[in-house]
Amino acid sequence: MTSLGQLTLDSDTASSLLPETVMLVGLITIVLIPNLGDAKFRIPLTSVRVPVLLGGSRFDMTNDPRMPNRISNITFLVAFLSSLVLISESPREVGGVLMADGFSRIFSTMFLGALLLVSVATTHRIPAKTKAPIPDDSDSKAAIDRKISVLIDNRRQVDFYILLIMVGLGMSMMTMATNLFMMIVCIELASLSTYVLVAFHKESPAGGEAGAKYFIVGSVASAIGIYGMSLLYLWSGSLDLDVLRESWQAMDGVDPFAAFGIGMMLVAFGFKVSAAPFHLAAPDAYSGAASPISGLLATASKAMGFVALFRVLVIITVPEGAEALWMVALGIFAVVTMTWGNLAALTSENPKRMLAYSSVAHAGYMLAAIAVVGSGISSTEESVVILTAVTFHLAVLVLFKLGAFLVITHLETEGKGHSIDHLHGLGNRDPMIAGSMFLFVLSLAGVPPLSGFLSKLLMINGIVSTSASTGSSDTSDIATWAESVDPLFWLAAAIVLNSALSLFYYLRIGLVMFFEEPVSSKPLKAAPSLRMSIFACAILTLLCGVGPVSEWLLDLVNGAIDSFMHQ
Amino acid sequence: MGENKSELGLLVYILPFLAVTPALFAMGWESYEASILIVAVPFMTFPVILIVGQLYNGEEFWKNKMKEGGILALGALGASLSAALWLVYDYVDALPNFDEQQSVTQWLEWVSFDLLQSDYTLTSGSKILGMGVWIDSITLMILFVATFLCFLICWFSLGYMNTDPINEDRNHRFYGEFVLFALGMFGMVLADNFLWLFIFWEVMGLCSYLLIGFYYWKDSAAYASKKAFLTTRVGDVFLMIGLFILYDIYGSLEFSVIFHDPSLNGTVDSGKLFWALLMMFIGAVGKSAQFPLHVWLPDAMEGPTPVSALIHAATMVNAGLYLVARMVPFVDVGHHGVSGLEDLGLIIAYIGGITAFMAAAIAFVQNDIKKVLAYSTMSQLAYIFTGLGSALWFYNNDEHHAAVVVFGSSMFHLFNHAMAKGMLFMASGSVIHEVHHAHDHLHHENGNGNGHDFDPQDMRNMGGLASKMPVTATAMMFGSMSIIGIPLIGGFWSKEGIIAETWLAALEHEPLMYGPAILVLLTAGMTGFYMSRMWFMTFAGEPKSEVVEHIHEETQWIKMPLVVLTAITAFGGFAFALLGATDYLSSAYDYSGHLKLHKSTLLESILYKLEYAFLPEKINLRIVGWVTIFLSFIVGPVLAARIHGGKLADGESSTPFVSWLVSASSKFGKQDVSSLAESDLSVALQNRLYFDDLYEGVLARTVIPFSQFTAWFDRNVIDGLVKQIETKSVSGSVQVRGLTTGSARDYILMATVGMLSIITLLWGMNS
Fold first, then answer.
1. Hey, are the CB atoms on A263 and B762 less than 8 Å from each other?
2. How sure is the predictor about A541, in pLDDT bands with cuts at 50, 70 and 90?
3. For residues A77 and A84, what is the distance between their CA atoms, to the nearest angstrom?
4. Are A108 and A76 spatial neighbours (Cβ–Cβ below 8 Å)?
5. How many helices (H) and strands (E) does chain B have?
6. Staple partner for B355: which of A178, A196, B6, B291, CB 3.0–4.6 Å?
């Protein structure tokens, strides 16, 4: 095992790790600030009191319960922007285990963008109240409960955002890891924080249960993955990706350690991307967690799993021009995953569960695309196209999947959102929000000209253009062609059929929003920054589907994937 | 009345639209680059009108300042008009040579949907759906006619539509669809390939359906809109087949590719091309309401009157003519055309001749003022088809000179007819509007508010309106004269050419041409009759109902378009004839003419033109010419005057423009035709020669049983299949969700199963 190296924070390292540094600073600030007060330290034996600022009675400003949220927003904003800027920087290796390049920065930008949206949205989901009265004996039981819940919300603001920044730190470090050990540590840093975030509403039974289940299944998956990693270590003697890659290429036949190791790691990453049958805890977790957190799981957390898959499957184990070991397994699991997800979503009455299953289905689509990369029939250029499509899909997923969860968040601010009935008549109550939601589900379904269409089109196009040419060139007889074409072609067919199936539940959202009677005639609660994030998502969903913005983003992703494949 | 305050101040709102073209000019754009605006501005405006109209329906600003979208529509059409005028100004005298046209369209690439390129996307470099503009004299002329008339008609609508309470809070729909309709026409004329031409063609088809059915709650309007849609659809299917064949022959639908050498160095099979062109012609027949697909046009009068003006003068019906005019390169044997297509010309000429005669005959007995105009439109368009048919025949026989004359005349007649008919419809709208108002007013006063059996479009309720509506009467007089072809006015200059050259073809070349030649000659006389009849019934004689007493010509917005078009109708024909419009318009395929005087001075040119018109060199043409004039100028109007003419009521007088005509109409005596009116022929004509019954009978025996069968098939087989899939999916969904038990133990079990299957697959596949 190569040593983890010496991490020294010189200025070059700091600048190429700027987003992480920002988050570290944010983390320290968010811990410190609420504790600032007028405490003084009396120098012993004298009466001189030196202000130490930590402790004592808090200042008005630092005591403000909205403070953690603000710090978190600013931290994520700065981190997001600095990560965006760093995408086009030249690759830089840090400490032998991290590699800050375009590929990692594309993903960290994606994660930080998602976290920024989550952080902003939570302003209204777990609101902080500056005036929180203390309950007294004259209050009724209900009033006491209400007041206590406000006080609890105020108290745990800081916990929530600390966890959120930890998630960000773990995820963005994870994208850079070039060493499996480092990668697992970062994934666990992010995952453990998300487990707590899922269970954050511990006073509600659903939240606690969801968090516990998610944690138990997640830790089993992690354990299996780490066990697989140790098998790889046994086999190769190193966990460095490059070394593993060389060993893999030098391998004669298939070494059982290597195959078992890869297979077990697939389980861990399969859990992260919520591929069937490892996804079962996901719908429970999504519906139990606060919606912004569910959105985070469905986008950033899933993308993190895909980064790991990219690293392990594409870098370590893709033999040049031959079928990869895992190709058939991945293809089968992709089809099972997308069908399972879509079928289960079909009758879900809880929009959060529906979105969770839809997220499972989307994982299936992307796994299918990755399976084609491993088929050995795709040239490097075609692989770049396909992986670009997958990455682009992950990036725009942040917009419309998280956007959809943010709309549910808006409903949750009035205690609703866990049943499709609560979406009834949203078009009357709030046409803008309902319109955005409709845009999001259409994009999830892949309707042009939205970004979900473009990414799905690129994926299917990648699969088809790679595999269709394998068919018999005698075009006069479609049956012969169908027999002779590479089975991978049918992955594209499966995606198309599944998309058709999925339209049913996506469009149903539109139907109930615009054609059913509203559940209440009251307008939605005011939530300005939440609305702003929703509209930003909606506009970007549109812009990333067609026009210059989509081209810019595609270029960016394409450049990153290109360098990733040619490193 | 308070609302008589002038509303012209509202025009300030259209100024931003009108500023677009000058702004682009100032930015250094070329007119062909700006030609995209002609379509783009209306395209961006129509959804705004519809959406804003839906949101702010009935609010003060929208209703009174925006005229429920009318001002926006006017602005958009004004922007189109200004861009079109710029294009006309730039190219009217500087048209590229037809053979060089290819290069022109290539600069003018508007939109080109290249397939997504570069290495991460679809790779294929070829242009699949490009659209450019094709500019020649025909484009310029029809574009001018369409933009100009659409603008005026929109202006007229501000008065016509917005003052009628029945339209209240619905007008945004009218204006939105109107603008979409107009842009369909503009785009069709500008398109540089048949695919885009077809797309815009269908946009118009859709809008005609929507607009004819504007009063959709009336059964008759709903029926009429369906009829128009389905009838034109029959034509459109044939047009599509024609385009398929064309694509099969040439591998492209771009004008620049096809027109460059339609014979492909002599390799094109004339039989195949004949079928392609014939199918396309059937499409044109549907769109331009020619026999036998003419049945929809009279019913289309169910739409609001501006729609009638829009469809029947400015836009849609001209589309068919435009399509046929685009067939010239295929048959022009002097310019790489394919020989052996004379039959096409003959068929077109026959269809034209038959329609012209039949429509004129039906127009004899119509009492609804708009229906007379509708049949007149059919008849006049048929003239143009006859002319185009002869032109194609001449082109295909390399009779170049005659071909050029008759083609130019046909296109010129399109111009004259569009101007006159646009105005006539607006004038009839003005009459209907005022009669309707007067009727409402009257019944309001008398208190017997029930006036359902009163038809404001029925000319039997009118009479003597010349004194009440002088502007309208003058406009209609000039319009009718232009349609009739009274010497020196409007349509005379073009109709003469069509009739004379058709006769030329019959006399000197092809005896089969006698059919259409005789039919169009007779029709000239019949036109004289039915147009005069309409005018006399409406404006001359004593009032035939008490309503007439209460008519005032006072609605705003209505007069201006009438006045402008009266001037163009009265003098435009002569002016353009002097400038050599026939030569110019035929120059599209044979570059020769500029718009300029024939001789060096104006007087000489006038004399030359008069001589050319009245005393042509060939003696048989001279005879045909004078017979035409005699029939249309003397026989028709005098007969009409004997039956329907008469003095105004005592004490009424009108402007000198029309009073001479009224008094002249009383000079020819009186003839009673009530016995004629009950003859079998008259009854048959009133029933439109039973075409509708025939079609309905045939449809009831063929299409309806078939559609009942397909309905059954759809309900039981297709829906049944879908239902099966649905129930299976739902039960599958329930089963799959059953696996999500909610117990972490089960989840781990499943994960283990998953792990084992992964390892089995990895290991099993590789050892």
1. yes
2. very high
3. 10
4. no
5. 35, 2
6. B291
- Give the minimum alpha-carbon distance from A225 to chain B in angstroms, rounded to a whole number: 10
Domain that holds residue A96: 1-35+65-153
Q: Residues B606, B608, B612, B614: is their CA dihedral positive or negative? A: positive
Q: Give the one of A221, A277, A461 whose C-beta lies nearest to B122's C-beta.
A: A461
Contact A213 B765 (CB under 8 A): no
Model confidence band, residue A363 (pLDDT cutoffs 50, 70, 90): very high
Whether residue A197 lies inside any domain: the answer is: no
Q: Could you report the per-residue pLDDT of B615-660, keeping only the tens digit for each?
A: 777 777 778 888 888 887 888 888 878 777 777 777 677 777 777 7
**Interval B478-537: pLDDT, tens:** 888 888 888 878 788 888 888 888 888 888 888 888 888 888 888 888 888 888 888 888
| Cβ atoms of B441 and B354 closer than 8 Å | no
Query: If you measure CA to CA, which chain B residue comes closest to A224?
Result: B755
Does the distance separating the beta carbons of B758 and A504 come in below 8 Å? no
Chain A residue with minimum CA distance to B755 = A267
- Under a CB-based contact definition with an 8 Å cutoff, are residues A486 and A463 in contact? no
Residue A71, in any domain of the structure: yes
Burial of residue B679, with CB atoms counted within 10 A of its CB: 0-12 exposed, 13-18 middle, 19 or more buried = exposed
Q: What's the pTM value of the predicted model, to 2 decimals? A: 0.69
Interchain pair A266, B739: CB under 8 A: no
**Range list of H helices, A33-101:** 60-63, 67-86
**Residue A19 domain-assigned?**
yes
Enter the ipTM: 0.86
* B758 → closest Cβ in A221, A329, A388: A329
Provide the token pair at B433. 């509007």
d(CA B143, CA B147): 6
Query: Which chain B residue shows the shortest CA-CA distance from A326?
Result: B762
From CA B687, how far away is CA B361, in angstroms rounded? Answer: 12
| CB of B393 closer than 8 Å to CB of B572 | no
User: Between chains, do A278 and B754 touch, taking CB under 8 Å as contact?
Assistant: yes
Does residue A165 belong to any structural domain of this protein? Answer: no
The total of structural domains in chain A comes to 1
Separation CA A543–CA A548 (nearest Å): 8
